[in-house]
Amino acid sequence: MDSKYTRVAIGVVVLVVAVVLLVVLSGGGDSEKTTKGVTTITIKDGKPVGGVAQLTYNEGEQVRFKVDSDVSDEVHMHGYDIMKDVEAGGSVSFDFPATIEGVFEAELEDRKEQILELTVNP
Amino acid sequence: MTLAVLLPLAHALVSRKDLPIPAWLFAWGASIVLIVSFFALSVAWRSPRFERDRWRPSGAALSRALLGYPAQVLCGAIGVFLLGLAVYAGLRGTGAPDRNFALTFLFVTCWLGFPLFSVVLGDVFRPFNPWRAIGRIVGGSFALIAGQRFAHLPYPRWLGRWPAAIGLLAFVWLEVVYGVSGGVTVGVSPNTAATALLVYSAYTLAMMAVFGVEEWCDGGEVFSVYFGMLSQLGVFAVEDGRLGRRMPLAASTHWATVPGSLAVVLASIASTSFDGAQEGAFKGAISSTFDWFSEAGLSLTASLRLTDTIFMLLCFGGVALVYLIGVRGMATVSGGPPLLKLRTGFAHTLIPIAFAYLVAHYFSLFVFQEQAQFTYLLSDPLGTATTNLFGTAEAGVDYKVLSANAIWYVQVAALVIGHVIGLTLAHDRATAYWGDYRQAARSQYWMLAVMVSFTCFGLYLLSAGNA
What we know:
The complex is a heterodimer. Chain A has one helix spanning 3-27; strands at residues 39-44, 47-48, 53-58, 62-69, 73-77, 82-86, 91-97, 102-108, 113-121. Helix content of chain A is 20%, strand content 45%. Chain A has two domains: 1-31; 39-121, Immunoglobulin-like (Sandwich), CATH 2.60.40. Chain A is α+β, with helices and mostly antiparallel strands. The model of chain A has no long low-confidence stretch (mean pLDDT 84). Chain B is mainly alpha-helical. In chain B, a hairpin with a 2-residue loop joins strand 2 (236-239) and strand 3. Chain A binds chain B through residues 3, 7, 10-11, 14-15, 17-19, 21-22, 24-26, 28, 30, 78-79, 81, 99-105, 112, 119, 121-122, and chain B through 15-19, 22-24, 26-28, 30-31, 34-35, 37-38, 41-42, 184, 186, 396, 399-400, 403-405, 438, 441-442, 445.
C-alpha cells in the first residue's frame, strides 16, 4: 500500500465530508420564529395549562406575557430577577426588554413550579 | 406517566442557561476538526519530542518563598479553614442551594477552579489540600511524641489510581445524580454536600493513616489525583522541593504508567458527557427508563437515581469502549508494542480532551457563579440575610458579562484546541512506539477516529441537536 496516495485519498474524503457538513448544516435555514404579542399563561391548580410555555425573542425585543393564576403565589422571572405577586383568581403582566441572552425560567416561587422557558437569541 | 424532573446543580445555582451552539457554528467546528486532523497526519514530525521531561529549576529565592515552611503552613491553614467553613455553612446555613457558600465553593470554585489553575500554574491544589495538611500535622506530632515515625502499610502497586477513579465517579454522582426529594429531585442540598465532605474527610484521613499521607494523595485522594492529572499539561512543576519549568505537555507522557490512570481520565470525560447528555441526547431514554422503574413500583426518587446511575455508568462504558476499540485497532499495525502497553500508553492523550470538555461545559457557569462566590456568598456565607461581612451581601450576578456569541466561541475553541493537543500527544507517542515512521502514521488513523468521535460528540452535546 502506498501510504502517500492513501493519505491523499483520505484527505479528499475528509474535505468532501467537511464541505457537505458545512453546506447541509448551515443551509438549513436558521430563521428562528420569535414570539409576537402578549402570551397568556394560565395556571390551573398551581400548574401551567398545556405545560411550560415557550417564548423566544431576539435580543432587544420586548418580552410580553401575562399570568392568569387560580392560586396565590409569586411569579419569579429568573435571570432578569423580576418578582411579582399574583392573587388567587388574579393576573399579573410582565413587559420588559430582552437584554440578556440565554435561556431562562420563570416559576411560581413558593411552589417551585416552572411555568415558562424564555429563550433570548443574540 | 409522571414527568421526570431533574434539576442539575448548575441550574440550581445559575439562572441563565447557555443557548445551544447554532447549526452553522457546529458545522464550522466539526469541519475544522476534520481538516486539522487530516493535516496532523500529513505534516508531522518523525521522532518523539515530548517524551523527555526537561525540567529546569527557577531561582532558589522564589522556591524558598513559595515552598518553604511558612508558605506550607499558611497554605495548609487556608485549606483547612475553607474546608471547615464549607462544612459549617452546609450544616448550619440556609437550604437554598444558590444562597449557601458550601455548594458554590465545592462544586464551582474548587471543582472547576482548580482544574484551570492546575493547567496554568501547576499543581496548586497540593499545598492547599486540607486533608494532606491535617495528615502531615498529625503524622509529625506522632513522630515528635513517640520518637519514631508511624508505621504505614505499603501501598499496593496494583491499586494505583483506582480508588481515585471510583471516587471521581462518586463525586460527580453526588453532584448530578443524587438529590433530595420532595416528589421531584431538586439536586444536592448544602446539608448533603457538607455531610458528604465530612464522610470523605474521615475516609481520607483514615486511609492516610493506613498508607501514609503522600502515598494516599498520589493514588487514592480524588482531588489530588484529578487536579494533579490536569497539572501535567502545564509548564510549572515542583521537583525535589524546587520550583521549575518544563516543556508544556511533556510531563503528561509519564503520568499514565500508574494502574487506574486510564480509568481516571475516562471517568472525567464520561461524567462531563453525562451531565451534557442527560438534558438532551439521553432525555428520552432516561425518561422511559424512569417510567419503567416507577411503574415497577419504585418511588420517584429511587427511580430517578437508579436511572441516572445506569446512564452515567453507560456513559463511562461508552467512552471506554470508543478508546479501547481505537487501541485494538492500533494493535493491528505491526511493529508496535503489545496491546496492554498501548492501552496505558495512549491514556494521557485524553487529558486535553477531558479538560476541553470541562471548559466547554462549565465555562459560563464558572464566570457567572464566581461573581456570587466573591460577593454575596463571601459576605453572607450561611445565606441568613443577617450577616454582611464585606458589604457585598446585596450584590447580584451580572448575566450580561458574557454574550451568547462569546460563550459559543469559547466552547468551540476549547474543543478544537483540546483535540489538536490530544492529536499532538498521540502522534508523538506513536513515533516513540513505532520505530518506522509510516507504521506510526498508520496506527494514528485509529487514534484520529477516537479523537474525532470525542470532539464531535462534545460539539454535538453543546449544539441545538442536544437541546
